[in-house]
Structures are given as C-alpha cells and as structure tokens.
Amino acid sequence: MAEGERQPPPESSEETPPATQNFIIPKKEIHTVPDMGKWKRSQAYADYIGFILTLNEGVKGKKLSLEYTASEEAENLVATVVPTHLAAAVPEVAVYLRESVGNSTRIDYGTGHEAAFAAFLCCLCKIGVLRVDDQIAIVFKVFNRYLEVMRKLQKTYRMEPAGSQGVWGLDDFQFLPFIWGSSQLIDHPYLEPRHFVDEKAVNENHKDYMFLECILFITEMKTGPFAEHSNQLWNISAVPSWSKVNQGLIRMYKAECLEKFPVIQHFKFGSLLPIHPVTSS
Question: CATH top-level class for 31-162+169-266?
Fold first, then answer.
C-alpha cells in the first residue's frame, strides 16, 4: 500500500458514543456475491481497515518484548470486561468476541475468525474503552495474547483451517500478525526479509518480532522443506525490504480476505460497524 493510500483512524475511535446510541445485536448482511459491493462501500469496511492500518503504523519498528502500557481504562476492561456505564454495548460487542475463536461444530478456524477479534478490538476503541493511544498495547499485549490462545487451541484440537488455500495461501490460520509483524521490522538494522527462512535468525529473534513468531509456529506444525509447505512466504522472503513486504501484505489482505465472499459472508454488522455506506466527514 502506497504512503498516500493510508487511511486515518476512524474519528469515533477516540470518543465515547453518545448515551442515546442504540446498540444492536450484529447480524449477517452479506448473503450473495453481489452483496460484497455493500461491504466494500460500508462504514464497517472503512472503520475496520482504518483500524488495521492505524495499528500497523503504531507498531512500526517496535519490539514485542519491550514494555508498553495501556490506559487505566483499558486495564479496567481486563478486570471487568466493559465498564458499567457502557453495559448497553456489551451484547453487541460480545458477538465479535464469540465469533473469534473458531467454529465449535466444524472445529475450524481461519482469517474470518481472526477478523472478528480485530473487529472486537475496533469496537472497544469506538466505545472509548480502548484508545488510539493504546495501539501498541492492543497489538502486543491483547492481540498477541489472543494468538497464543489460538495456537494452543490449534495444537490441542488440531483445528481445521477455515478457507485455507493450501500451499498457495499465506498461512493456514492467521494473516494480521504477518502485516503488523512486517511493520515491526521496517528499518531493522540487520534483519532482512531473507532472514525469516533462516532457522538461526528465527530462533534468536522470535520473542521480539511477531512475524518471526509466526514462522516459528509454522515450522513447529509442518514438516518438509519450507519452500514446499509455505510457498507464498518463501516467495516473500525474496522481497528486498520490509516496507515492501508490509505494503504487499496489506494489498494481499484486502484481496484475499476482505474481498472474498466465503470470508465476509460470516461477518456481522451492528451499530458500531454498520453496513450502511461510508459517510464523508
């Protein structure tokens, strides 16, 4: 994604919604392939991708292992889920959290479930529980902990990849940590994209960098030559810079996840992430 294409974070992410806002239970709105046009024009799409790109910018050049603090209100969230004065929002926001851990019937998990968790975090920002100032903690503390939980579930229950493209996909389960993880590595003094297929480089640096943690997990879960079981990632290792990797992954995420009907047909829309067309400010 070119520099000029970056979108600002949704203005509502720093504001508490008015007391008169009517929260609603999110529901599916994308029932057929032609409905995808509604999604791409929607306020939900604009707010969601704006949130993803804001976090992408926030973690640029930062290490996972450093200490980052969240706001006091966000700390309260951990203890109480949602503050009492926002209780009306709980049923709406909780839908995205429930959708984020995979399907209990099919025992599968994929980028649509991951998107639900990102939507959950986006909603918490929109109601003011989390703030844009918390962006680094949102990725490194909250989202990274979510990844740890999902990896444990994937290992324990051998969850099926939901909508996997096999060897031609980026990863069986995740996408966002590759975007944010590549942003972390932009302008790194010595780690280049070619190094993530180097076992020694991964083992020495994975605790600091989300991208390398993803690579380590893949190598733990799959056998055989990396170029065979993860061909797309192998190809990415030939890209000359992390900034180009990051830009390419953002384009790929839009094309392969956010613009694919099998993924978006399960996304749900409410008052915080509405299906109505984006409104110009």
Answer: mainly alpha
